[in-house]
Amino acid sequence: MSSGKPLLPYHPTIQEFLHLDPNQEGVHHQIQDMSANSSSAYNFSLGSDLSNCSSSTLFSKPLTISINIARAILILPLAVIILHLACQRWKKRGSLTDASNCDIFTYHLAVMELLGNDCTIDLAFQSYNEAFSLLKVALITPLTFIILYMAYQRWKQQGSWTAESHCDVFTYHLAVMELFTILGTAATLLGYFSRFKIMVLVGMNFDAVPYSGETLFHDLTCVERYLAVVHPLTYRGLKTARGVRIRNVMIGCVWLLSFGWMLVRSLRSDSLQAWG
């Protein structure tokens, strides 16, 4: 039923776009029919497809909802607490110039988690997810390269990272994870607007790497800070060669789990199987 108002320009969702047959006549008519048959056709959710694998072609809805709720429960309170501590420190000292580089990076990461959380995006910015994805990449890219440049400078000065604090090393790996987010988002948007399906699939799989890895690195950072404050003797013991080996093993496990998640997503994607 037409309400008499002109429909907004319709863009197919990632799922709809991947299932359109480019060899079939009247692809544009398919898109127009989708728009006419849906009163909320323009409220598509590209951003959630890019960042958190919430595609119905990948997972069932209950599993997707459970993952997003668990992520929100774990990350949101932690991000709010970190920003509250930063605000308290700023009020007490008037600035954050005396804070360690690791603390500054942690504050910025907390802001990014608030910006990137699906619960925030899907509720408030559902119609503007492409713009949000571009804004997120624009904000993350400079900070990521600054962190990696500082890591490179320290490596040149010291010859290795064995003397680095565990928190700093976790931050460097988080920055590398963000590179996958940048590349994945760029590839997905480029493929989406150029109607190139394979590029969309590659970008979505790239973006799956930091989905679990970032959360795990945040967890390791929290454990490291907890040991430093509550169990200082145990924390000093982790600064030895044995502690460095344990840290490297945990980092390797995080990367394996991250790439494993990407592989699972690739195998379970109906769209990817259609290209086989």
From TrEMBL:
SUPFAM superfamilies: Family A G protein-coupled receptor-like. One of its GO terms (cellular component) is membrane. The chain crosses the membrane at residues 65-86, 134-152, 172-193, 246-264. It is found in: Membrane. Keywords: Membrane, Transmembrane, Transmembrane helix. Signal peptide: none annotated. InterPro entries: GPCR_Rhodpsn_7TM. Residues 143-276 form the G-protein coupled receptors family 1 profile domain. This is G-protein coupled receptors family 1 profile domain-containing protein. It comes from Xyrichtys novacula (Pearly razorfish).
